Amino acid sequence: MKLTTVKEIYKNREQYLDKEVTVGGWVRSVRDSKTFGFIVLHDGTFFETLQVVYHDTMENFAEICKLNVGAAIIVKGTLVATPQAKQPFEIQASEVVVEGTSAPDYPLQKKRHSLEYLRTITHLRSRTNTFQAVFRVRSLCAYAIHKFFQEQGFVYVHTPLITGSDCEGAGEMFQVTTLDMNNVPKDDKGAIDYAQDFFGKETNLTVSGQLNCETFAQAFRNVYTFGPTFRAENSNTTRHAAEFWMIEPECAFADLNDNMDLAEAMLKYVIRYVLENAPEEMNFFNSFVDKGLLDRLNHVVNSEFGHVTYTEAVEILEKNNDKFDYKVFWGCDLQTEHERYLTEEIFKKPVFVTDYPKEIKAFYMKMNEDNKTVAAMDCLVPGIGEIIGGSQREDDLEKLEKRMDELGLKKEDYDFYLDLRKYGTTRHAGFGLGFERCVMYLTGMGNIRDVIPFPRTVKNCDL
Amino acid sequence: MKLTTVKEIYKNREQYLDKEVTVGGWVRSVRDSKTFGFIVLHDGTFFETLQVVYHDTMENFAEICKLNVGAAIIVKGTLVATPQAKQPFEIQASEVVVEGTSAPDYPLQKKRHSLEYLRTITHLRSRTNTFQAVFRVRSLCAYAIHKFFQEQGFVYVHTPLITGSDCEGAGEMFQVTTLDMNNVPKDDKGAIDYAQDFFGKETNLTVSGQLNCETFAQAFRNVYTFGPTFRAENSNTTRHAAEFWMIEPECAFADLNDNMDLAEAMLKYVIRYVLENAPEEMNFFNSFVDKGLLDRLNHVVNSEFGHVTYTEAVEILEKNNDKFDYKVFWGCDLQTEHERYLTEEIFKKPVFVTDYPKEIKAFYMKMNEDNKTVAAMDCLVPGIGEIIGGSQREDDLEKLEKRMDELGLKKEDYDFYLDLRKYGTTRHAGFGLGFERCVMYLTGMGNIRDVIPFPRTVKNCDL
């Protein structure tokens, strides 16, 4: 259907003023006096609404007056400026056609609903202001990430979701199977007969695309993956989801400094893109969700990120151990409270912490010359803590094999990965950005369930 | 590292000629005479290679001469024009530093390898010309799709991968579980106790994001999802994969014609984008993979797609039944041979077939007034057959419930979906584009295993 969008009207108002337009959308409210009435219309293309004035000269005046919140209508009329009113213009309707009514028990009435309640109606909550803003920003944020990497010639690799290997041994995984659970086939030794499973072996949902990405980086130099990843962790927190999206770039001929430069440039690009392309939504978050949001994001765009080694960071934090639930010491993993203290209190801006003890990081990270720390980096941001984790990768075959031996990893499971070090190995580095954490950071939303269209968490898999 | 890319050199050659540049990449070949030698270097950023000339004045001349295919090097030197030679320029190297050698058993020697062989080394095959071209085009194609929708204000929805519902009852699904397969818990009736599973119920991998997308279309008007989908089908063909990506737009206030216009505009946009942004790769496909490719794609960009109803198509095809393995009759599902005949022999361009018998289409498609056919469309393209399938959706609550009853679908499983028809229903439509099929169409590659970075098919889940 040829409809003018509310976005077009707001963005190019001069072009539409005093002209006839046809718009379609959903009723946010209706109020009428005896001879005329007002409809607040939202068409989904823009955060702001459009006021429609209708009159009893219309045949279906009574029908319109009775419309419930949520009804769909198509309005023809003239756009007129309203310099005295709150809204900049309104439509003087010549025709209001009801596309679809809204039953009286519509769960979204014109009042404020709690986020908890809205989580019980995921199929309708995106019609509210908050979720209009969240999911539009989420979409723009995803696009900005693609745009950033594509403009620099990165190749987007679709790493696989179903995997036969537990990449980094990273925690609990979901099993994927077509075996009959009522009657799991066993082999003659009594073990599960995975030869009968779809892939002929045990398979799981991926926890990271990194190792696959590395194979592509050694072919295309600069690559990224952006896809779903999974954790079967039994943690019912505001920050954990069982299914979430992750961005993982990987660059050949790149070291840890290149990696941090890339992460900083990417974050700034994404923030700028969202601020420019969703000003209405970002103002809404700043007013109603997180008062300091715009200041904080603008500050990030305009600061150079800080840099501190893990060892230095521990020295700083140890002096403040009285403030922490978990006391800091060299060798400990940093908790969110420590990360936030560093970025919020000490640096007052995003900061990279580098060179972590090898014991608390993954086997593939490049060993530093001290043989105690690895070339890892975490990027910490105010309000969140860690948002990005990355590293230079061990590119030396011998050192990598030695580290795998120390950790008891089976080398035959990583043949392909070791091949990359045998055939034209390069210094290379990459990182992972949790997409949902990024959206939370950009919107100020406090619960990961509210930035995922249909969240999957422990005991929760609706729709 | 600050390296000039081969792409930059090719695209802005004037800027680099007679200047010193530093490049990094992998050796495609080395040949030497006594006092100098040539390296063909590929750096992954561009389809073409760069010739490097090195001399025995270098300290490590002997080391360079011995480099194997696949070795990684960093070259410093002067870019000079070579008007007499096949290649437009070369680097006269002042320094060649070996970043990583390549072991003698490197599986990719300088000869043509079969696609079948290359499938056995998915971690290395992207270093070959064919897969450089395929996966760069795949990346550009994905980006073009995002760009197309984002430029028109569509909201990108991440529909869930793990799902508790079998959306369209569409065939075999993969089960997702954290239950112990060795000891599946049973309840007191002897049934599997899914209350103990991660989500507290039986869950599977999604086969389509459409129904979720519809909920967002009724909030944002124009939305799309672009993510992985899964089929546990036991079909070992060149066209089926267990894991593949799908694009599914959904538009409110849109009918079947709007839907076809959108599909046609999208396909043309994507083809144009790839032709413009990967001319070297597309020429390669045209020369070595599929001779008529460029003509065909240019023809598609410049034609208006044809339109024919299913009933008309059947009439046309019935006259040619002697040419088909499966004979055509009204009510039958069209096979690839029929589809290709229509688009290749009859229309000689892409064609939309519309208004299929309701019996062979899904329950949610809008019933036409004849009560026999539904407002469905398939887009057929030469060389492939069906590439897109879509429909207007049934937006009338009563008719939808009636159809679900006829088909024996449980309405309580679709509460959320029926709600969309209760609260502000709109005419709306959408389609699905199989991403891999699109990449095959754009590249002329004949096997889906060769357009997926790490393909998952029956009994095959490597890396």
Automatic annotation (TrEMBL), chains A, B:
Q: Which residues form the Aminoacyl-transfer RNA synthetases class-II family profile domain?
A: 144-453
Molecular function terms in GO for this entry?
A: asparagine-tRNA ligase activity
InterPro entries registered for this protein in UniProt: Aa-tRNA-synt_II (IPR004364), aa-tRNA-synth_II (IPR006195), aa-tRNA-synth_II/BPL/LPL (IPR045864), Asn-tRNA-ligase (IPR004522), Asp/Asn-tRNA-synth_IIb (IPR002312), NA-bd_OB-fold (IPR012340), NA-bd_OB_tRNA (IPR004365)
Q: Which Pfam families match?
A: tRNA-synt_2, tRNA_anti-codon
Q: Which reaction does it catalyse?
A: tRNA(Asn) + L-asparagine + ATP = L-asparaginyl-tRNA(Asn) + AMP + diphosphate + H(+)
The enzyme class is: ligase
Top-level taxonomic group: Bacteria
Q: Which UniProt keywords apply?
A: Aminoacyl-tRNA synthetase, ATP-binding, Cytoplasm, Ligase, Nucleotide-binding, Protein biosynthesis
Localization of this protein: Cytoplasm
Annotated coiled-coil positions are none
For this protein, the Enzyme Commission number is 6.1.1.22
Under the heading PANTHER family, the entry gives: ASPARAGINE--TRNA LIGASE, MITOCHONDRIAL-RELATED (PTHR22594:SF34), ASPARTYL/LYSYL-TRNA SYNTHETASE (PTHR22594)
Q: How does it assemble?
A: Homodimer.
* UniProt family annotation: Belongs to the class-II aminoacyl-tRNA synthetase family.
- Protein name from the UniProt record: Asparagine--tRNA ligase
Q: What is the lineage of its organism?
A: Bacteria, Bacillati, Bacillota, Clostridia, Lachnospirales
